[in-house]
Specification:
Layout lengths: L4 E7 L5 H17 L3 E7 L14 E4 L10 H8 L9 H8 L1 H10 L7 E5 L4 H11 L3 E5 L9 E3 L2 H11 L5 E6 L3 E9 L2 E2 L3 E4 L7 H5 L5 E4 L5 H17 L5 E9 L4 E7 L9 H8 L4 H17 L11
Parallel strand pairs: 1-2, 1-3
Antiparallel strand pairs: 4-7, 5-6, 5-7, 8-9, 8-10, 8-12, 10-11, 12-13
Helix pairs in contact: 1-10, 3-4
């Protein structure tokens, strides 16, 4: 196969910098094993000046959070005409913004937990009324963060207040979402097709940043035991969520299966964790695609997309 010149972008400026460095190093090593000429670039500012003077066939952004998944780096790469792995700026921004994602899900009849948007300037009575409309317990989320950063579970109004104080560290808007009691899964979507399901089984009550990245007791079960029809439905919802945001190449869609059997889409991650032990590569491995081949395939999808641009993302009410 042809040898490509590829830049892997990692690190970045978000609260997910350390996770991004791990993803980037793993991608760098995989693409090197695949025989490509790869350069690893640790970004420390919201620009791509380190790419100046480089002649590249493609860029693999392994950047999580701000300037990685919000469309910022994608806009700059498009200005330079560089093929890159992942969704375009509009789809990236829509997926990163939890309120925007919810609007797209609703307009495409994709079930998602009831929610309310709250701001740092709202009166407490307004927030209390919003919580009452969706009922406790709730999940409190910053509007534009990934990797469960700043996310808390609230069983009481006092815990809602504490959770909002945490969420508002990352912006002046937050989402209060009904807590779905049941099983949590992730659906990897590769080139528009669903990968095998992965079930997340934390030992603690809530799957937060610690449970995701630091708690060695957390279990990740590939191809969990489910009725075939349920597996197919969760995979269908994952693909529909990916498509409604006009994502491309890859995404990881988080879904919940409530104890009564109802399924809900939580969010779409356009640049999921990408170490060899991360959930998306685990699912790809279960489909017969090893990590090195997966990274190589994504780069080639990026080059193909640059030759055949996709249509622009439409607003939810269009």
């Amino acid at each position: 196969m042809d040898k490509l010149k590829i830049a892997v972008l990692m690190g970045g400026v978000s609260s997910e910098r350390e996770v991004s460095l791990k993803s980037g190093r793993a991608v760098f090593e995989a693409l090197t094993r695949a025989g490509h000429d790869v350069i690893a670039i640790d970004l420390r500012a919201e620009d791509i000046a380190p790419l100046d003077g480089l002649t590249l066939d493609a860029v693999f952004p392994a950047l999580h959070g701000r300037f990685g998944e919000d469309g910022g780096v994608q806009r700059l790469l498009e200005k330079r005409g560089l093929p890159y792995v992942g969704s375009d700026p509009l789809a990236s921004r829509a997926a990163m913004d939890k309120m925007a994602s919810k609007c797209f899900f609703i307009s495409h009849d994709i079930p998602t937990p009831p929610f309310r948007l709250v701001t740092a300037t709202m009166r407490w009575q307004q927030i209390e009324d919003a919580v009452g409309e969706i009922t406790l317990p709730v999940i409190v989320k910053p509007l534009r963060q990934g990797s469960s950063v700043g996310v808390t579970k609230a069983q009481t109004l006092e815990e809602v207040a504490t959770g909002l104080a945490t969420a508002f560290r990352y912006g002046r808007q937050a989402l209060i979402e009904r807590c779905i009691i049941g099983r949590e899964f992730t659906v990897g979507v590769l080139d528009g097709q669903a990968l095998p399901l992965v079930e997340l089984k934390p030992r603690q009550a809530f799957f937060d940043y610690f449970a995701k990245y630091q708690d060695t007791r957390t279990e990740f079960i590939v191809n969990p035991e489910l009725p075939p029809a349920t597996t197919a439905e969760l995979q269908r919802l994952g693909v529909e969520a990916h498509r409604c945001l006009n994502c491309r190449h890859l995404s990881r869609v988080d879904v919940m299966l409530e104890n009564d059997g109802c399924a809900y889409v939580l969010e779409v991650n356009t640049i999921p964790g990408f170490t060899e032990r991360s959930l998306f590569p685990k699912a790809a491995q279960a489909s017969g695609l090893d990590y090195t081949t997966l990274c190589d395939r994504l780069v080639r999808l990026a080059i193909e997309s640059a030759r055949a641009p996709r249509p622009a993302l439409q607003a939810p009410n269009e």
